[in-house]
Amino acid sequence: MEPLLEVEHLRVRFKTKSAVKAFIEKDDDPYIDGVMGVSFAIEPGRTYGLVGESGSGKTTVARAVMGLVPVDSGAIRFNGENLVGLSRDRVKPFRRDIALMFQDPAGSLSPRLKIRSILAEPFRIHDKMPENLSVEVARLLKMVNLSPSMGDLYPHQLSGGQARRVGVARALALSPKLIIADEPTAGLDVSVQGEILNLMARLQNDMGLSFLIITHNLAVVRHVSDHVAIMYLGRFLEQGPTQTVFHHMRHPYTQALLSAHSSPDPDTVHHRISISGEIPGLVSRPLGCEFHTRCPGVREKCRRLFPPRADAGKDHQYFCHYPLSVSEN
Amino acid sequence: MAEPVLDIRNLSVNYLTPRGTVKALRRINLQVPSAKVVGLVGESGCGKSTLISAVIRLMAENARVAAGEIRFTGKDMQQLSPRDLRAIRGRDMSMVFQDPMTALNPVFTIGRQMADIQYRDAVSGKEKLKRAADMLSLVGIPDAVSRLDNYPHHFSGGMRQRITIAMALLVQPKLLIADEPTTALDATLEVQIIRLLKDLQADFQCAILFISHHLNVIAELCDFVGVMYAGELVEKGSVRDIFHRPGHPYTRALLECDPSVIAEPTRFLPTIPGEIPSLIDLPEGCIFYDRCPGAAQVCKKIPPPEVSIAEHHTAACHCLEV
Ligand SMILES: Nc1ncnc2c1ncn2[C@@H]1O[C@H](COP(=O)(O)OP(=O)(O)OP(=O)(O)O)[C@@H](O)[C@H]1O
Ligand SMILES: Nc1ncnc2c1ncn2[C@@H]1O[C@H](COP(=O)(O)OP(=O)(O)O)[C@@H](O)[C@H]1O
Ligand code: SF4
Ligand code: SF4
Ligand SMILES: [Mg+2]
Ligand SMILES: [Mg+2]
After folding, report:
1. Is B97 domain-assigned?
2. Which ligand lies nearest to the CA atom of residue B182 in the structure?
3. CB of B65 closer than 8 Å to CB of B54
4. Quick one: B12 and B88 in the same domain?
5. A74-99 confidence digits (pLDDT tens)
């Protein structure tokens, strides 16, 4: 199937100091790489999960796809069209098809706006005011199993789960094809988390939506995403079908990450693969394989050479000189 | 148990709203023994944050303590002067919140903020910055020394949270209160922070009141666990009792919803059907009645008593198999 979203060699850089300061300090490269050449594709009706250490660049990838941070190089193709370098006007219709799901609508949206105005915002921003706004608002609320009367409430009057539903409804406003959800269930207890994820799964079934889900919650990713990428210092160290990555991982970091996840039993004896050492900073990005400062299997070559991309099977790639053997996991 | 660091007795808290009085907490009894970790779990909106705001006496304007008392190292928190309170907060009692920006000031550098909270210590500014950098490294912030000059917005969400944890630890408190501190962290860091908290607790004999939705973290870190539902503490006990022998139907349902215990991947996860009752018009009988799979006739009209299941293990339910 043709992918809905195809990201190729995406690179995003941040300035670390002002031009004046860089000049004074004779720093000819006052940049850090937030995202360093990641590639992935999402097919229609599928869910792609992005996991990785905090600060690894997940949100930055999402923001680049949304057009919210400038792209340094690479391509972001949506329905075959490269959005990078398109003029604002040409890009606008595509942006309507990509919606961002707010993590915390009660916190991130104006507390003074009633739910109905919050739901009307996407229409206003995109100059797409429907003829009958109340009908539209009621329709959106119904889609997420909320009663139309909720439109008259303020965000702080909602429970955590209800607020999250409003976030889903708002993302659905312009009938997008892709929804980007950054930590869609962070801060929810497991029962409400289940409700939100089930709602997203139902909408996906009914409407053929694609999702890009960013989360720290490996238990969630395992259930909801078809494909997953493991991100570290701005790169995807391993990516592939979720089941494959979880059960036949080749990258030592993936193994460490998955082994860190504890079980909800106080008597579990954890067999964690300890990854010692600090997470290197973007400013002091290590040479060679960037995971070498913490990798339990590091060898001499790793410190010098960045490993080439290796294919482990259909859609399954990793970057490592000395991958785990298939029988190790 | 020796005298607990924190002793919450019969605490009820209301919020006054135009729609009526929200009875957000009702008759809460909870003790945090010295050098122990007590976890609190429960559905969003069940009152965990309200409980904490009452403990640290930083409540919303419309909040009222309707009954009960809170003792911290023997002192009645409600009787303390604002000055004594300030002395306690940020020294003997420190806090880590869900949203790191509650604790960080966007217009000052991290280094400045971390030095400022050490204002009581008679050491040089340079020494304070060094301590700050050491603590940042300890919580896993790379390039710690150079990042002291950065402002909060230069860090990712998870990094900001680690910074607030570093700040809370800098003062070596007797009680650390943490409201979902690891929500924004990935599994490896979460584990790292949990270990850090455990070490700190062992070194400084610090007690921790820990709120989290990550049941696995609760299981790993805590000695005791309290389970809240709609403003009540419906069950409490040792971490083993709660995870291995849960008594209350809500606790059981909650544990079953955890996606990490479901082996086969599934798109549709278990939930607890129904909704939390209105905290303005409380039901007459058991608060969990309309969602409880095992509800009996008596539950509808009569609030359940707190029943002792084992030492330190109690649950509020009519139908416990004890
Ligand atoms: N505006 C900015 N200026 C400088 N550095 C930035 C900026 N925004 C992000 N960064 C840096 O880019 C890196 C990636 O940040 P990003 O927010 O994408 O992380 P993340 O993977 O989403 O983390 P988390 O899981 O904690 O949300 C971090 O090191 C961060 O400090
Ligand atoms: N300032 C307030 N005014 C009115 N109601 C409030 C206020 N703060 C919280 N509440 C209500 O009190 C209950 C408990 O909220 P909270 O303590 O934030 O729960 P939790 O932290 O467990 O998610 C909820 O029903 C919430 O809507
Ligand atoms: S390339 Fe070397 S250092 Fe990097 S992950 Fe593989 S074995 Fe570890
Ligand atoms: S008292 Fe009755 S309704 Fe309440 S939890 Fe127990 S069995 Fe369920
Ligand atoms: Mg992020
Ligand atoms: Mg809360």
Report:
1. no
2. 1
3. yes
4. yes
5. 999 999 999 998 988 888 889 899 99
Which of B120, B151, B172 terminates a domain? The answer is: B172
The tally of domains found in chain B comes to 2
> In this structure, are B164 and B242 located in the same domain?
no
Question: How many whole angstroms separate alpha carbon A194 and alpha carbon A229?
Answer: 22
In a shared domain, residues B76 and B132: no
Q: Which of these three, B172, B201, B225, is where a domain ends?
A: B172
Q: Which helix (H) or strand (E) holds A258?
A: helix A252-260
Best of A152, A164, A190 to substitute, by most chain B Cβ atoms within 10 angstroms, is A190
The helix (H) or strand (E) run that includes residue B133 is helix B125-138
What is the distance between the alpha carbons of residues B190 and B260, in angstroms, rounded to a whole number? 16
Question: Which residue of chain B has the CA closest to A220?
Answer: B259
Domain range for B140: 104-172
> Which ligand is closest in space to the CA of residue B234?
4
The pLDDT score that the predictor gives to residue A22 is 66
**Which residue is it, tokens 């993302």?**
A171
- Structure pTM? 0.86
Within its chain, how far is the Cα of B18 from the centroid? 28
Of residues B120 and A174, more confidence is placed in A174
Amino acid at A73: S
In this structure, the answer to whether residues B75 and B25 fall within a common structural domain is: yes
Residues A193, B140: C-beta atoms closer than 8 Å: no
Q: How many residues does chain A have?
A: 329
| Residue B157 contacts residue A215 (beta carbons within 8 Å) | no
Domains in chain A, number:
1
Atom index in ligand 1 nearest the CA of residue B186 equals 25
Q: Which amino acid is at A111?
A: P
- What's the gap in Å between the CA of A281 and the closest CA on chain B? 5
